């Protein structure tokens, strides 16, 4: 079966999670093609070709694809889709925006956030904020699937797939890109960081997040937050870890002042090792933590930072 | 401009769900049901547009069993003007709901449709995008801020790296993210008034929509439970465990 992976990219390289999507696609069929659509995306196409398991890269150059507007990208994907049994995207903000639009254009269902490929037509996906897992089977001719990157080990580098040019579909002129307000950070990206330090309402203010920043920088960690902390305005929205934010599965997750609401746990409970720091010993976060420490985070975090430093 | 909002009846977000013993689904009998929280944000945004004089009428749409009337009533009590219920006891998946919505949009001709970005039961995050595709409209998903003027909408979207601004032509479909607004509570007088507001009931057949599910749910299970670990007394002990037991730092 031929699989089409639709890759998001920044012009220079495809997103890291494309390697996870390729790995997932490899479990659905053996012939994996990656679509790289954009404006001046030759470098990104080359990076896709270098992922092991990729048989071919399709590069679609069109000014209309420069900013990944769903109205313009979805018709291109839908036009290519009939040559494939599956269309796969990583379940990030790009995949979630585009994949359902593609599915509707094809008159097929979409499978959201697959965490396991049971067989080419059967997938496991979380429902109810991860409190249940549904196994669903698709009867559609083309399966449009978004996959949760953290559940599929990234395909390694070392491939050398041929790159083929495909024509663009032009702009639908329904929407235009104005600009972005991206968080500037030197820290590793949350979803690919090996260590994540997250703060919750217990921090009390955005100012107090500084103590987490210091710890995160000592550990080379990404910085996250609970929904409560984001809603309270302590940190920007892209810090949010949880069912409706980002799903992370680092080697080490340190939850500071986070009580552990169900929807937060859904976003981090696949982490290898979880540490919880909270003053409330009854906090639900301790039920999933490997190591818990009860106490005042404003004492414990600086102590931990110092101890890590001493190494 | 008419604004159509879609509201879904789901298990209340405070309820801890239980997977049925026969693994066919999640227990919904005798469980508190409420409006999907993301849809409350959609209703609130429509009401604010009406208060600003940008919307003339707000239609609250729902699809599902007769009890969805209650969900529509909640929207009416918040400030929507009238309701449309596509009533069916059949299982509805996102593509089917998008098709039902399209049929109602064709009839009502709203200038804007606002829906929650996802429902907290199936967590699909599909219906809005699918509806936009079926209508050939633009889409402003995961909206953090919405500004409608002169036949276009400026949408600030919550994306992976932060926020993104797009400008889209109307008519359009907007899907709401958490920070778009804080929904109001319905006041008692408004709850009373909502009882008199009209709700039209339609059947999927009458709309000519095939709602047959495309995905077959083979089983629903509880996720593997993570075992609680240990509590440590000191930071030194924690660092020792992380270094020598877990080997993660």
Straight-line distance between termini of chain B: 58 Å
Shape of chain B: globular
N- and C-termini, Cα separation of chain A: 51 Å
Oligomer classification: heterodimer
Count the DSSP helices of chain A. Answer: 8
Q: Strand share of the residues of chain B?
A: 25-35%
Sum up the overall morphology of chain A in one term: elongated
Helix content of chain A: 10-25%
Low-confidence runs of at least 5 consecutive residues of chain B: none
In percent terms, what proportion of residues of chain A is strand? 25-35%
Strand order of the largest sheet of chain A: 5-9-4-1-2-3-10
Averaged pLDDT of chain A, please?
A: 95
Strand order within the widest beta sheet of chain B: 9-8-7-10-6-1-4-5-11
Q: Outline the biggest β-sheet of chain A.
A: 7 strands, parallel
**For the residues shown, what is the average pLDDT of chain B?**
96
Q: Total strand count of chain B, please?
A: 13
Low-confidence stretches of chain A: none
User: Helix and strand succession of chain A?
Assistant: EHEHEHEHEEEEEEEEHEHEHEEH
Largest sheet of chain B: 9 strands, mixed
Structural class of chain A: alpha/beta
Percent range for helical residues of chain B?
25-40%
Describe what this molecule looks like in 3D.
The complex is a heterodimer of chains A (311) and B (249). By secondary structure, chain A is α/β, with parallel strands linked by helices. Helices cover 24% and strands 29% of the residues of chain A. Chain A has a 7-stranded parallel sheet with strand order 5-9-4-1-2-3-10, sandwiched between helices. A 5-stranded parallel sheet of chain A has the order 13-12-14-15-16. Chain A has a 3-stranded antiparallel sheet with strand order 6-7-8, with no helix packed on it. With 249 residues, chain B is an alpha/beta fold. Helices cover 27% and strands 31% of the residues of chain B. Chain B contains 6 helices and 13 strands. Chain B has helices spanning 37-51, 68-78, 94-108, 127-135, 188-194, 235-245, and strands at residues 2-6, 9-11, 33-35, 57-64, 82-87, 112-116, 138-149, 152-159, 162-169, 172-176, 199-202, 215-221, 230-231. In chain B, helix 2 (68-78) packs across helix 5 (188-194). The model of chain B has no long low-confidence stretch (mean pLDDT 96). Strand 16 (291-294) of chain A pairs parallel with strand 13 of chain B, so a sheet runs across the interface.
């Amino acid at each position: 079966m031929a699989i089409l992976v639709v890759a998001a990219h920044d012009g220079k390289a495809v997103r890291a999670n494309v390697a996870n999507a390729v790995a997932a696609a490899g479990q659905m069929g053996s012939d994996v093609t990656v679509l790289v659509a954009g404006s001046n995306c030759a470098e990104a196409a080359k990076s896709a070709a270098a992922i092991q398991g990729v048989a071919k890269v399709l590069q679609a150059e069109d000014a209309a694809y420069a900013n990944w507007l769903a109205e313009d990208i979805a018709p291109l994907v839908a036009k290519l889709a009939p040559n494939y049994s599956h269309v796969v995207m990583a379940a990030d903000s790009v995949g979630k925006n585009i994949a359902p639009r593609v599915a509707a254009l094809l008159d097929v269902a979409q499978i959201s956030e697959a965490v396991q490929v049971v067989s080419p037509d059967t997938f496991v996906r979380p429902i109810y904020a991860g409190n249940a897992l549904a196994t669903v089977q698709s009867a559609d001719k083309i399966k449009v699937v978004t996959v949760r990157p953290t559940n599929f080990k990234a395909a390694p580098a070392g491939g050398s797939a041929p790159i083929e040019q495909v024509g663009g579909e032009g702009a639908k002129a329904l929407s235009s890109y104005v600009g972005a307000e991206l968080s500037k950070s030197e820290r590793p990206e949350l979803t690919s960081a090996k260590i994540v330090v997250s703060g919750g309402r217990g921090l009390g203010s955005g100012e107090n997040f500084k103590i987490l920043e210091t710890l995160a920088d000592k550990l080379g960690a990404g910085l996250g937050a609970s929904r409560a902390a984001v809603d309270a305005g302590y940190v920007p929205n892209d810090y949010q870890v949880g069912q409706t934010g980002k799903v992370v599965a680092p080697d080490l997750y340190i939850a500071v002042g986070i009580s552990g609401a169900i929807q937060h746990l859904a976003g981090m409970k696949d982490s290898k090792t979880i540490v919880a720091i909270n003053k409330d010993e009854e906090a639900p976060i301790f039920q999933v933590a490997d190591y818990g420490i009860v106490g005042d985070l404003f004492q414990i975090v600086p102590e931990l930072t110092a101890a890590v430093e001493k190494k | 401009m008419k604004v159509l909002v879609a509201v879904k009846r789901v298990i209340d977000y405070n309820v801890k769900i239980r997977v049925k013993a026969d693994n066919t689904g999640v227990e919904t009998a005798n469980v508190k049901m409420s409006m999907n929280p993301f849809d409350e944000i959609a209703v609130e945004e429509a009401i604010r547009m009406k208060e600003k004089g940008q919307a003339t009428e707000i239609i609250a749409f729902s699809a599902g069993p007769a009890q969805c009337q209650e969900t529509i009533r909640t929207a009416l009590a918040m400030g929507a003007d009238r309701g449309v219920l596509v009533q069916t006891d059949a299982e509805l998946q996102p593509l089917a709901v998008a098709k039902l919505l399209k049929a109602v949009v064709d009839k009502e001709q709203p200038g804007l449709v606002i829906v929650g970005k996802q429902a907290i039961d199936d967590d699909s995050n599909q219906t809005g995008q699918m509806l936009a595709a079926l209508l050939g409209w633009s889409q402003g998903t995961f909206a953090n801020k919405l500004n409608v003027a002169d036949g276009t909408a400026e949408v600030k979207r919550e994306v992976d790296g932060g926020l993104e601004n797009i400008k889209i032509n109307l008519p359009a479909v907007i899907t709401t993210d958490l920070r778009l607004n804080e929904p109001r509570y319905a006041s008692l007088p408004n709850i009373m008034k909502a009882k008199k507001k009209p709700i039209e009931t339609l059947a999927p057949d009458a709309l000519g929509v095939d709602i047959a599910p495309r995905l077959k749910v083979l089983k629903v299970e509880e996720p593997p439970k993570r075992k609680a670990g240990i509590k440590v007394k000191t930071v030194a002990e924690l660092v020792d465990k992380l270094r020598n037991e877990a080997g993660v730092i």
